[in-house]
Structures are given as C-alpha cells and as structure tokens.
C-alpha cells in the first residue's frame, strides 16, 4: 500500500511560487508514495472555544475535523512555504494550531515531516523554515537532516511553464524528498 503524504502549502495564492514548487515536488516522489496537496485556504481561524468541552454553543467546525483526520491518516507531511515578514505565513500557523488540538489527540504527534522553504530574496525562507521547525518541535516529528532546502531568489527556479529548473536544483529537491521518504519508511 502506498504511503500517504499530505503536502501543505504555506501560501493561499493560486499562482504562488510555493504552489509551483509543491506541484513540481509531487512529481519527484518515488514509487510507493502518494503525495496529495491539502488546501488550507478554508480553515477557519483557530479558536480554542471550538475545542473547549465547557463551551457548548460553538461546535468544532467540520473543516477542523476533516483537516485533523487527514493529518492523522497521513504517513508523512511535507510543507512547502514562503517566508512572510521573517516568519511563517499566517495561514500556515493557523493550520499548525488547528492540528495541535485537542491536547489529548494531537494530529501532528510523531508524524514524519519535511520542509521546503523559499523566498524571493537570498535567504531562501530560512526564517520561515526555522520558525516552522520550532512550532513543530513540540510534537516529536522526525525530519530529514542536512542539507535542508532553502530556495533563495526562488523566481529564478521556475520557468515559463511552471517547471522547477535547473536540473541541479531539481536533483537537490529530489534528494531531499527521497531522504524525507526514508524517514517516513523508518517511522511507519
């Protein structure tokens, strides 16, 4: 049975570079892995009242339940994110928070995780990746080691057809995805 990988994009924009990178990454997974993008666009802002058993007039939104169940059913999670103001985008932090509750049933717990970050500047989303790693570190999520993937000056890596280039960069991202898949295999 194929390993299910949930790909979460830290950008809501349809034409974003993060989305283009994620679409290319889908094609780089080895046989035996089934990566699927989960759209976080419609997740309501996190509000603990939804998960507080003492608050009876605010039922948990179905979007929360669907997201949490998808994460729990995944064999691994791949984040592809830009950097916004030296941090992770608000939509991505919202998704992390939704998956972190309720405390008794955290969706992220022990899920293998991979992160590809990018920025239009030279740093390649370094701050967003480090902030995302910090937020996820609480959940004991195994991750591939070095080298990490920071794609600086990222527009140069996407051609007019939305394809990741040059081949050296494609191979670098493919190597990371293969190492991520090894982590998934080791933790299944």
UniProtKB/TrEMBL annotation:
Alphabetized SUPFAM superfamilies for the sequence: Flavoproteins
Entry-linked Pfam families: FMN_red
A Gene Ontology molecular function term of the record: oxidoreductase activity
Residue span, NADPH-dependent FMN reductase-like domain: 4-154
Gene Ontology cellular component terms for the protein in this record: cytosol
Name this protein carries in UniProt: NAD(P)H-dependent FMN reductase
């Amino acid at each position: 049975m194929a390993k299910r990988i949930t790909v979460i994009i830290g950008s809501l924009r349809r034409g974003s570079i993060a989305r283009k990178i994620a679409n290319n990454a889908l094609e780089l997974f080895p046989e035996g892995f089934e990566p699927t993008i989960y759209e976080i666009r419609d997740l309501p802002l996190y509000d603990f009242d939804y998960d507080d058993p003492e608050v009876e007039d605010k039922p948990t939104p179905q979007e929360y339940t669907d997201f949490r169940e998808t994460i729990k059913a995944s064999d691994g999670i791949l984040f592809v994110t830009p950097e916004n103001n030296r941090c992770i985008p608000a939509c991505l932090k919202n998704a992390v928070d939704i998956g972190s509750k309720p405390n008794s049933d955290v969706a992220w717990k022990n899920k293998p995780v991979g992160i590809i970050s990018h920025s239009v500047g030279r740093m390649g989303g370094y701050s967003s990746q480090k902030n995302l790693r910090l937020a996820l570190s609480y959940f004991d999520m195994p991750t591939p080691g070095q080298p990490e993937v920071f794609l600086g000056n990222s527009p140069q890596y996407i051609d007019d057809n939305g394809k990741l280039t040059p081949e050296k960069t494609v191979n670098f991202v493919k190597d990371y995805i293969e190492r991520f898949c090894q982590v998934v295999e080791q933790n299944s």
